[in-house]
Amino acid sequence: MARKIKVAVAGAGGRMGREVVRMVLEDPELQLVAAIGLSAGPVDAGSLVGKPDTGVIVSSRLADALSASRPDVLVDFTNPKSAMPNTEIALAYGVRPVIGTTGFTPEQISDLDKQCKEKGIGGLIAPNFSIGAILMMKFSAMAAKYFPHVEIIEYHGDQKLDAPSGTSIKTAEWISEARQELRQGNPKEEEVIEGARGGYYNGFRIHSVRLPGVFAQQEVVFGAFGQTLKIRHDSYDRAGYMPGVNTAIKKIMNVTGMVYGFEHFLD
Which of 127, 140, 182, 247 could form a cystine bridge with 170, CB 3.0-4.6 A? Predict the structure, then answer.
């Protein structure tokens, strides 16, 4: 029988972190060896898989947890402020980072790629682990060849820290690769209220909606003479991201270098 992949979870007490813990515990090919959160204590999996005690203690210090447990992979769903230092700590211990937190700059990704290659291991930074969201981005890039006039509207809850979302930025990057820069709208247009037209990216606009009661949706709207095309993806539950996270954990074991985008792990 093949050795289980040992997994540590950063942000284990958060809503996404708890889903990752659940997924790891339910997969016989994976082993939860460490959990990192704001408050220390045992990981209670009673409501997850019927086990009152996982044997894993939540640590508040990432370096101590990695040093003690020696995992193969660190899954991080924390926040933009913590993601970069967490990734560097993981790499320092030879642990493969699978990062679902956004906010990395191209320069940071390049630097992390260099660190990965120096260690001879792989890492992944994924703005979105949803297969449906990846398809939405792919279809949008295809459409941009024929509908160059486009705007992106993304919706998240009011507690999301970054705007625009990593998914919308990744979508914009894909669209920009498929179409030449085209400055849209009336050349004489004027924003009566600053920011009303959204954030500017390569000639088009990204609009970020932040409201309570919203989970995660994105709509890409294309306009042409006499017609529009809308490509939309809606997420309703965090469990929808877990098949992607599971795939990333297993595939990252055979990768060298830092990969940006979960789409690279799809067949």
Answer: 127
149 is annotated as an active-site residue: no
Spacing of C-alpha 9 from chain mean position? 14
pLDDT at 114 over 90: yes
Q: Do the annotations mark residue 11 as ligand-binding?
A: yes
Catalytic annotation, pick one of 4, 6, 119, 160: 160
For 128-160, the pLDDT digits (tens) are 899 999 999 999 999 999 999 999 999 999 988
pTM for the full model? 0.79
Convert 48-80 into a string of H (helix), E (strand) and C (coil). HHCCCCCCCEEECCHHHHHHHHCCCEEEECCCH
**Tens digits of residue pLDDT in 173-211:** 999 999 888 888 888 888 889 899 999 999 999 999 999
| Domains with residue ranges and CATH for the chain | 5-125+238-265 (3.40.50.720), 131-235 (3.30.360.10)
129 is in an annotated binding site: yes
Residue 160 bears catalytic tag: yes
Q: What is the pLDDT of residue 45?
A: 47
Is position 35 annotated in a ligand binding site? no
Q: How far apart are the C-alpha atoms of 117 and 148, rounded to whole Å?
A: 37
